[in-house]
Amino acid sequence: MSETLNKILSKYTPQEAETIRQAFDFAQKIHQGQKRDSGEEYFSHPVEVAKILADLNLDYETVSAGLLHDVLEESNYKPEDLEKEFGTNIAFLVKSVTKLHRVSYGGDKGFRENFHKMILATAKDIRVVLIKLADRLHNLETLDGYKGNKERIAKEALEIYAPLADRLGMGEIKGVMEDYAFPFVYPEDYKKLLDLAASQMAENKKYLEKIKPEVEKILKASGIKYLAVNARAKHLYSLWRKLQKYDFNLERIYDLAALRVIVPDVASCYETLGILHKYWPPLPNRIKDFIALAKPNGYQSLHTTVFCENGKITEFQIRTPEMHLNADYGIAGHWGYKEDANPLTKKYSWLRQLAEWQKQNMTSEDFWENAKIDFFKNRIFVFTPKGDVIELPEGATPVDFAYAVHSDLGDKCSQAKVLGKITPINQSLNDGDIVEIVINKNQRPSRDWLNFVKTSKARAKIRERLRLIS
Ligand code: MN
Fold it and tell me: Over 60: is that where the pLDDT of 337 sits?
């Protein structure tokens, strides 16, 4: 464990490392003699959690809190004691994560309360949820040795923690979490997937190894100063989800073989795309420019699928090192030492929204109902006529869109033009739609709208207006 500690310490200034070391010693003393279900030293768990946080390049306070995250649970120490020892920030982080622990397994009600608390603490300091994610990630990694309800832990990961990581733009953490949880929640599907895809995936791996030097040669010859060309391993759970949509036909999964090309700047991304298309023809409608149009969780890359050597369908993802960091680490990758939570809250509008809810004093039940709608539903992205992206839950209607743009627009919304065609305001929108709202000065929200709107914002505004009018 001291080896792991040294690796962690090497990333921080001497002064910061001193605090981390202090947290290490403190936690080691408290967990002395405690064992995990697997028989391992308990202390190995907080150390691994701290390592995950350090690998995410998070600040020393987060890493220290990661080491300390279970000490309040396991001792008579009070948050005040931690505050004296480690300062307000670290004590706050530990206290918040501990609170989440206490109610964690109390059935559905406990779970909702827990989720509510986690989000409230997150709105105050995003680092709380990052520690919780690291904690859960390590518990999942070691789930085999756990003697409690494995399925429940794994299920929570699929339902809450992985989507949360995804919304924070932490694609790698999301993928790994899901893959750890998958066999515990759906053991039979997991086996079926391996039967179906394992040999294909092994074959792909060999193919990608073969094709990689060829890609490098082409890029070199074209004067592209690429930094890396890597095979991208498809995560099993996300492959499973995709297969469900495509009748379990592997041939319809176009990103099963994928290469990632990292180039120094944005101009080289587009240049690389052009060069690849010169050698291998692209499949129509599979070119995606997430650089010009980033996904709302911040993800950027160019994607294209080509008929590669011998017509083998291969996906390329082209991006800069910054985009790469962002794709894997998301919000954590943005962590700067001087940055407070504010710019992050600006970037992630849903965090802002959660902070709004916090002000409304909702019950945990209401909070959960709203979160289910706004947070965990699949998202679609639609455009204003000016090209601004509006993110909505699946099934959202022009009225939801109008309220997402502006309350006034919602109130006076009388018709919608979707892709130029007049469309009823209760019809579901599709991903990529361009939506124009036609307003009528005399229009008022109607009770009937409540039957079809999907966002909590539209619902709340309509209710508010109806109360005002009647
Ligand atoms: Mn823990």
Answer: no
Q: How far is the CA of 98 from the centre of ligand 1 (A)?
A: 9
* 56 CA distance to ligand 1 middle (Å): 18
Going from the C-alpha of 242 to that of each of 85, 145, 159, 430, the distances in angstroms are: 49, 30, 17, 19
Cα 76-44-161 angle, rounded to 5 deg? 85
How far apart CA 371 and CA 163 sit, in angstroms, is 12
User: How many A from CA of 241 to the centre of ligand 1?
Assistant: 29
* Residue 69 CA to ligand 1 centre (angstroms): 6
Q: How confident is the model at residue 341 (pLDDT cuts 50, 70, 90)?
A: very low
| Higher-confidence position of 110 and 302 | 302
Instruction: Specify the fold of 2-181.
Output: Hypothetical protein af1432 (1.10.3210)
Structure tokens at 308: 């590669």
> What is the C-alpha to C-alpha distance for residues 20 and 31, in angstroms, rounded to an integer?
16
Tokens 């899901």 belong to 178
Measured in whole angstroms, how far is the alpha carbon of residue 97 from the centre of its chain? Answer: 19
**Topology (CATH level 3) of domain 377-469:** Ubiquitin-like (UB roll) (3.10.20)
